[in-house]
């Protein structure tokens, strides 16, 4: 099911006395109906929601992430417009997972992502549980040119490499992706940053090793960015052609991100994540981004939705230069 954005989802403060200089995102965002073929994007940004917590429910988690897209949009609406000349923002509405039909919703998300990439947009997918990633990937896979190598960077406390032999969930997307790539004879390049040892069983570390997954522990980022981690990122990025960046908000310490499906006490600070984002975006290889696992039902004073929105702001300002 798909619901295009309407103006009621983009509302915020207005400063009409300041004219053009007083504009905010809710005043510049243009609504686009993604149930139809869209015009060429010319590098413009498009927000596409994936309203689902079906994967979280299947993964024994606390539900609420279906409210993520709406909460992130509300938190972004009043951002001051500092977009470079000619860069446009589009509100692309939401793919909604209804009646537990996750696989259908993921396929629909994939089709929309595929169209956006084909038309030259920079997608920002707003989750949803981390099951968002598999739908997102279905579109990325179709949008890649022949021979292009995809690198996936996941900022996450968890590997999300669980077995999906019983059912897929928010804990399985990257194993699904690995298997799909392998079935097509393609390599799986996957880097997880912010991993919590206590949050991943030995089985998950074993799966990560079997799939040659690269990772950085959260514990190694508590003193900030360092050259070893920069080198690791650079080496990973230099081996691929395009980067899909997935940001699971549970990578942050719960003090910054209480409103997630599975909070992390000793997670990362926003400051170190901003440095990581700069490093990734400056490569010029970023293809598409998602921000997932926001659970507004457990948020405190919109802290987590504001953090998600601020990350998106940072990403857009930097990515617009590329
Ligand atoms: N999206 C993934 N979620 C985690 C949840 C961990 C937990 O519930 O503690 C995972 O499956 O590993
Ligand atoms: Mn995750
Ligand atoms: Mn996680």
From TrEMBL:
Cite the binding residues for Mn(2+) 1.
130, 156, 158, 160, 248, 250
The Swiss-Prot or TrEMBL record lists the needed cofactor(s) as: Mn(2+)
Question: Which CDD domains does its entry note?
Answer: Formimidoylglutamase (cd09988)
GO biological process annotations for this chain's record?
L-histidine catabolic process to glutamate and formamide; L-histidine catabolic process to glutamate and formate; putrescine biosynthetic process from arginine, via agmatine
- Output the Gene Ontology terms for molecular function: agmatinase activity; formimidoylglutamase activity; manganese ion binding
| PROSITE patterns per the UniProt record, alphabetical | ARGINASE_1, ARGINASE_2
Alphabetic keyword roster: Histidine metabolism, Hydrolase, Manganese, Metal-binding
Is Mitochondrion one of the keywords UniProt gives this record? no
Broadest EC class assigned to this enzyme: hydrolase
**Highest taxon of the source?**
Bacteria
Q: How is the cofactor bound?
A: Binds 2 manganese ions per subunit.
Which residues are listed for Mn(2+) 2 binding in this entry? Answer: 156, 158, 248, 250
What reaction gets catalysed by this protein? Answer: N-formimidoyl-L-glutamate + H2O = formamide + L-glutamate
Q: Which protein family is it in?
A: Belongs to the arginase family.
Q: What does this protein do?
A: Catalyzes the conversion of N-formimidoyl-L-glutamate to L-glutamate and formamide.
Q: Which PANTHER family match?
A: ARGINASE/AGMATINASE, FORMIMIDOYLGLUTAMASE
Protein name as annotated: Formimidoylglutamase
**Gene encoding this polypeptide?**
hutG
């Amino acid at each position: 099911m798909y619901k295009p954005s309407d103006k009621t989802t983009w509302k915020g403060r207005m400063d009409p006395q300041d004219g053009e200089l007083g504009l905010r995102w809710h005043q510049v965002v243009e609504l686009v109906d993604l149930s139809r073929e869209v015009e060429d994007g010319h590098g413009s940004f498009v927000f596409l929601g994936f309203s689902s917590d079906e994967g979280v429910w299947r993964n024994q988690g606390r539900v609420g992430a279906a409210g993520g897209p709406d909460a992130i949009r509300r938190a972004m609406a009043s951002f001051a417009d500092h977009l470079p000349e000619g860069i446009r923002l589009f509100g692309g509405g939401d793919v909604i997972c209804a009646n537990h039909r996750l696989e259908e919703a993921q396929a629909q998300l994939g089709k929309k992502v595929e169209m956006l990439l084909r038309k030259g947009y920079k997608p920002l997918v707003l989750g949803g549980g981390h099951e968002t990633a598999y739908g997102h990937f279905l579109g990325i896979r179709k949008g890649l040119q022949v021979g292009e190598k995809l690198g996936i960077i996941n900022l996450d406390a968890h590997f999300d490499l669980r077995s999906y032999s019983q059912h897929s969930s928010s804990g399985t997307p990257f194993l699904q992706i690995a298997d799909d790539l392998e079935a097509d004879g393609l390599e799986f390049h996957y880097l997880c940053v912010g991993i919590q040892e206590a949050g991943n069983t030995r089985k998950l570390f074993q799966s990560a090793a079997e799939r040659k997954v690269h990772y950085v522990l959260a514990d190694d980022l508590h003193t900030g960015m360092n050259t070893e981690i920069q080198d690791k990122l650079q080496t990973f990025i230099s081996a691929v052609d395009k980067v899909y960046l997935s940001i699971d908000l549970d990578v942050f310490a719960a003090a910054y991100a209480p409103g997630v499906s599975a909070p992390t006490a000793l997670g990362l600070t926003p400051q170190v994540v901003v440095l990581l984002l700069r490093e990734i975006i400056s490569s010029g290889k970023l293809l598409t981004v998602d921000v997932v696992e926001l659970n507004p039902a457990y948020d405190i004073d919109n802290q987590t939705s504001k953090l998600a929105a601020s990350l998106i702001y940072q990403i857009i300002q930097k990515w617009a230069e590329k």
